[in-house]
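Deliverable D5.2: sample structural annotation.
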Amino acid sequence: MPKDISAVVEKINVSAPSSDARWAFEGDVPFGDLEAGVPLSAMPVVHRLRLGNGLRLLLLVDRAAPVVAYYTWFRVGSRHEKPGKTGLAHLFEHLMFNETEGLKAGDFDHKLEAHGAESNAATWVDWTYYHESLPKDGLGLAVKLESERMARLVLREPQVTSEKEVVANERRMRVEDDIEGAANEALYATAFTEHPHHWPTIGWMKDIEGFTPEDCEAFYRTYYAPNNATLIVVGDVREAQVLQKIRDAYGAMPAARIPEEDTRPEPVQRAPREVELARPTATTKLLMGYHGPALGDADHAAATVLSEILLGGRASRLYEELITQKELCTEVRGWVSTFRDPGLWEMYATVREGRSAAEVLDVFEAATARVRDGLVSDDELARAKARLELGALQGMDTASGMAEQIGFYDSLLGDPAGAFRKLEAMRRVTAGELRTVARRYLRPEARTLVRVVPEERPHGATTTEGAAEASA
């Protein structure tokens, strides 16, 4: 144990009121690019600590600016839900900004705004997080507010009903009345039949409308517990101050019994699938998904690089062919999902008015065939890697950016410096590896296609939820 952290931990533990409030140091992780030539001794580190009640802390001191980023990551997302109760994880993202036993509704935001802070939250498949970015003297405020809502959230009928209505309206706006939202929901609902990726993080409408305060209370007491949470603190702070404040605020919280997951692996897709949605759009839109690798899979770096070559902006192959040369599309893009379990390798295109979806699909199929059969050029490979590296590093140029990346990779891979390991893995990708992942994943039988076509009648389209439930 490094001498400085050792002394801090030992000093604070002397006054610990119980074993649950004692800190254990679990090691340091170098936070930097190991291939950049910076000596390990000069590299910043993420201190990993854990309270006796299970609360984890990842602490990175960064004095580049007088600010602090405070993130709380809970290891719960839509994958932890059950059929009939979808959307609970996302509902809590809203409920957590509501009333607590010590704060009236609205006080949380008002106190942060008065201190010049920014706050937000996000929920997805594998995780939920809450964060504040604020001046460094606001650390104590962030600790007080976040610990309050982790332990003392009010979940009575008026609060739950109000937030259910907010989420239902959000679903209408982002899915039912949004073409891309409806198409993406239909894509995952069709491509997955067993795995929880089948349902959307926002939840099905009938589930949202059916939640009770008892459902919310059970979910809260199970997953919003110190032993299911990780705090990430990055910024201009003193280690002793951070450990003392967090110990005092969270140390008395009891651990919960976290249930074992019961996730069914997705069966291999052996035939192409297709769904057509009629929507108020002037032109056809195509959303394709091939079953792809998990974030921690050795293939993920190569798949990410190949996706960049095919669909990563104006220099990509499909942008050049579909938009610049043949003028078949007005937009193309792609993404390899970053989930703990295998997700989808997505490809999206908006067909230009007067052109056909068949023409666009022919180009996509020819492009995937070429990368399955041949090698990309050295120049293409180098350009794609450079763009991905720039994007990765730009995402960590602030305390908040670093905290988010630390939390994300720790939650998914157990590695607070996983962003740098992913970068190093992408640098090592070869043209041969790109051909291998193309052959492994970009197979016609593994593709799901959602075709969004202009509706003929104002109310002639089947709802996405109905189509999804039928596919199950």
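Annotation notes: The radius of gyration is 24 Å. Residues 281-454 form a domain with the Cytochrome Bc1 Complex; Chain A, domain 1 fold (CATH 3.30.830.10).
The annotation will be released with the project's public dataset once the embargo ends.
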